[in-house]
Amino acid sequence: MTVLTVLALLALLACARGSDVPRNPDDPPNIVLAIADDLDPDHLGFCGNPLARTPHLDELARQGAYFPTLYVQPVCRAALATLLTGRWPHETGMTSNLAKTPLAPSGSDLPALLEQRGYATYCGGKFWEGNLPAFGFDAPAENDEKFAREGEGAGDCFRFLDEHASKGPWFVWWAPSLPHTPHRPPARFNKAFADVPIEVPASFKGDADDYVQAERSSLAMESWLDAELGHLVEKLRELGELESTLIVFLADNGWSTASWAKGTPMEKGVRSPLVVKPPGSTAGRELPALVDLVDVHATVVDYAGAALPGGCRGRSLRPLLEGRPYEPRKLLCGAVYGRYASLVPYALYARDERWKYVFFLQDVSGKELSPGARLAPEFRARGGQQRLFDLEQDPLEQHNLAAGPKQRVREMHAAAFAWWKESGGAELEIPEGPSR
User: Fold this and answer.
1) Range with the lowest mean pLDDT among 165-179, 325-339, 367-381?
2) Full-prediction pTM beyond 0.90?
3) Pair 207, 214: CB distance under 8 Å
4) Using one digit for the tens of pLDDT, what is the confidence trace for 278-293?
5) CA geometry: angle at 296 spanning 69 and 32, to 5°?
6) Nearest-CA neighbor of 125 among 33, 61, 256?
7) Which domains does the chain possess?
């Protein structure tokens, strides 16, 4: 056999095996950004729920790092705009799901940055802002809102992976509308939870049977989400791409069956699970760092080898993931907006490792918010009201301590407003209120 024949056979073998051919470890990784839609972190196995059936997510957490405190915007469109841009809602102008004007592509949005680095880019599922190519997505030509949820779209994503597996690198924005309402999963998922015992909390004042059924349906939806992610991971394994892929999993906003959640500054609205599995083999660990959604954007940009554009607010988590020096955030600060598009927030918040402070700039009630959990009590607050919670002792924020530790209230109030001013927030009208 001649040398040329051997080389030709090796070339054919490389094409057949695709990305099983070893890559240079200095090459940028493939990237999957997996975005759940309205997810309660407390419904996941790796977050400690014994009733959850999320084996693929649990395995992902065992292979990577789990961050228990990621703060997101509590409505999906604002959160996805932040993921795209690395900027906060008052900077993107995207504060509500009902905004009439789509986000304008800048040429430096996340998929465009990756495309400039040589990535093939794919968008599957929820993407609010319309023109995929303008934001840097190569495929598909038009967004498929039914992606994964109705058994459609995944095949198109897998064809994209088949095409680019041997070429690399590639980026997949994977955002099925799961486990978003309506909670009507395929029968096999409902059946799996039909008889699981659900404890009704003493604080719940509604119909107990209603609560039990809602919890079972929610758990079934999260199991469906997990199964869909499992199909994607298995596809990567079949292609030999799994070990060379960065997988980032998070939710666009929180959710709850019967607690204040979506659209509110409460933990069930603004806290998301975050799992990061870097390329290669790593041991699972929990990292208690405070993480803002802009940090997820910065982390993906960092792994891709791109420069973070000016005006982006994030801090890459890559040094922390790799055991290098990393300066953690001491506070998470943010603003929360009503249901109708407005650049004026109804509340500002600040949160450290233990304490959470909220200041309400306006009167607010459930009808001004994005729709939350059907069984939750109506969320109400008065302009000028302050709330302080000890999250270590009161994770569901049932006991307002703002009348107590005055120094802590003053410091966190000052921090929230300093963040707003330093990040370019407009002048705010500060109301007098019942709990100043």
Assistant:
1) 367-381
2) yes
3) no
4) 998 677 899 999 999 9
5) 115
6) 33
7) 27-329 (3.40.720.10), 333-422 (3.30.1120)
